[in-house]
Amino acid sequence: TQLLEQSPQFLSIQEGENLTVYCNSSSVFSSLQWYRQEPGEGPVLLVTVVTGGEVKKLKRLTFQFGDARKDSSLHITAAQPGDTGLYLCAGGDDGTASKLTFGTGTRLQVTL
Amino acid sequence: KAGVTQTPRYLIKTRGQQVTLSCSPISGHRSVSWYQQTPGQGLQFLFEYFSETQRNKGNFPGRFSGRQFSNSRSEMNVSTLELGDSALYLCASSLQGRAEETQYFGPGTRLLVL
């Protein structure tokens, strides 16, 4: 069974601080996705990374896929209250978008 | 265009009952996947339907089943409900379920089993 462990589980920071969320596995994934989920809603896709060592930037968010395609990180610069939510990484392993293995989740709260 | 819709949004059932949840994908999307989300186990894949056929299946007991209709709408059924089935059930749709496609999630159906 493939597992994706995220750390930290909870993070409470003030506006303007930087943070990094980690997603680790002992298994290799063909792709790695990051989602954000807000209360009462389904997860929303932020990014997909497919190449080992790949780095993608989305405004203040930087995503990195490990060289061995077993781990990933999400770095947020100058966090804002709107970044508050549950961040989930998800690994794909068989060329489909659907059968994803989700990480344990990181709940982020950004306060003023 | 309209997003993924799920009905009902909330449901309360008792142990032993059965329940059917519905998911309408984004227009034109033919792949529909179902997930269970609980505080303890997180988000877990249940199954995926494409063109009215189950294409992938997760590690859930046979009490969990689903189907897809010709218009790509999907239903999920859970029979003989157990307390542990209390969860948020999410469905997601994509064009054809390919790795490079984006999956769009619905808001979920929150099921409480008493």
Approximately what portion of the residues of chain A adopt beta-strand conformation? over 45%
Question: Roughly how many Å is the radius of gyration of chain B?
Answer: 13 Å
What is the average per-residue confidence, as pLDDT of chain B, rounded to a whole number? Answer: 94
Helical proportion of chain B, percent range: under 10%
Q: What are the segments of chain B in which pLDDT stays under 50 over at least 5 consecutive residues?
A: none
What's the alpha carbon Rg of chain A, rounded to whole Å? 13 Å
Distance between the termini of chain B: 37 Å
Put simply, the count of helices of chain A is 0
Helix content of chain A: under 10%
Judged by helices, strands and strand pairing, the structural class of chain A is mainly beta
Please give the number of β-strands of chain A: 11
Cα separation of the termini of chain A: 40 Å
Order of helices and strands of chain B: EEEEEEEEEEE
**Taking all residues together, what is the mean pLDDT of chain A?**
92
Q: How would you classify the quaternary structure?
A: heterodimer
Q: What string, H for helix and E for strand, traces the elements of chain A in order?
A: EEEEEEEEEEE
Number of helices of chain B: 0
What's the total number of strands of chain B?
11
Q: Please report which band the strand proportion of chain B falls in: under 5%, 5-15%, 15-25%, 25-35%, 35-45% or over 45%.
A: over 45%
- Uncertain parts of chain A: none
What kind of sheet is the major sheet of chain A?
Answer: 6 strands, mixed
Report on this model:
The complex is a heterodimer of chains A (112) and B (114). Chain A is an all-beta fold and 112 residues long. In chain A, 0% of the residues lie in helices and 53% in strands. Chain A contains no helices and eleven strands. The termini of chain A are far apart. By secondary structure, chain B is an all-beta fold. Chain B has strands at 5-7, 10-13, 19-24, 31-38, 42-50, 53-57, 64-68, 74-78, 87-94, 104-105, 109-113. In chain B, a hairpin with a 5-residue loop joins strand 7 and strand 8 (74-78). Chain B starts with a strand and ends with a strand. Chains A and B meet through strand 5, strand 9 and strand 10 of A and strand 4, strand 5, strand 9 and strand 10 of B.
